[in-house]
# Entry
Amino acid sequence: MTQRRLFLRERPRRNRKSAAIRDAVRETAFGPEHLVLPLFVHDGDGEIPIGSMPGCSRCSVAGLLAEVERAHGVGVRMVALFPAIDDALKDPTGTESYNDDGLVPRVIEQLKNRWPELMIITDVALDPYSSDGHDGIVAPDGRILNDETVEVLCRQALCQARAGADVIAPSDMMDGRVGAIREALDDEGFSEVSILAYTAKYASAFYGPFREALDSAPKSGDKKTYQMDPANAREAIREAALDEAEGADMLMVKPAGPYLDVVRLLREHSTLPIAAYQVSGEYAMLKAAALRGWLDERRVVTESLLGIRRAGADVVLTYYARQVGEWLAGEA
Ligand code: PBG
# Structure
């Protein structure tokens, strides 16, 4: 059989024929400057491993400083703090969330003393502090109270701002909280503190390992009356318009990998920077397969983050942030 010649004017492979050409035409890049490292912290001694997130721990305050030191050393300059609060300090309205001597304010102070230019992102929601394990206040009949919750979230945000947080990130999904927090911050002279809104946060099973890490699973019911239905995308555009109008500085989509279409939608419907959160369950999947030798960890992690950036995210929150920084720095 003679070889048929294809007379093709267009041969896209020509732009892939050498590393130099591939490097020259690459459309998406990412480095440690785009990454945020989420960290779990508790008020005791020692590091407590998280079973479903090998490689991640609930850090002591000292352990957290050591983690940040490593991450900062490889160019990761943004961290997000998540506290594991003693059960004895939890109550139905989450009063510990605005205790100026609480765990988060103390951690912020220590981080700021050591790395003044580190961007510290703090989570605003009641679940780590609530005896009910919900992001909002639970009424006797089980409903999650919106406006009453927003009042407490404002106190929490102010407490974090007083301690030196750079970016306040409400993850609770109550209506109107971005505007209320913006007003509360401005009233108290914190007009330079940013708001990163969890705009499209879905009611996702991928948060399972995180709830194990913080022991923060809801005691009853689920989060479907405030977090979004995974089936919805148009609704994310509506949430984005509201958060933008209420004064958000950045919009977030969460989880990231299964919701790349939503990342792209928000990219197209807003001029604000977009963040995406590669959540605990996404980390657990990648890590589990890597530990079994089923996937090449470095390559799949890099590809998953590149995909999130390609979809339109400027900033990516990932438990792999430090590790990626080390890979890129050639340290691991
Ligand atoms: C709670 C909160 C959650 C996460 C971040 N903030 C869990 C939840 O909504 O139940 C999940 C992060 C992750 O899974 O990595 N306000």
Remarks:
- The domain at 29-329 is CATH 3.20.20.70 (TIM Barrel).
- The mean pLDDT is 97.
- The chain has one domain: 29-329.
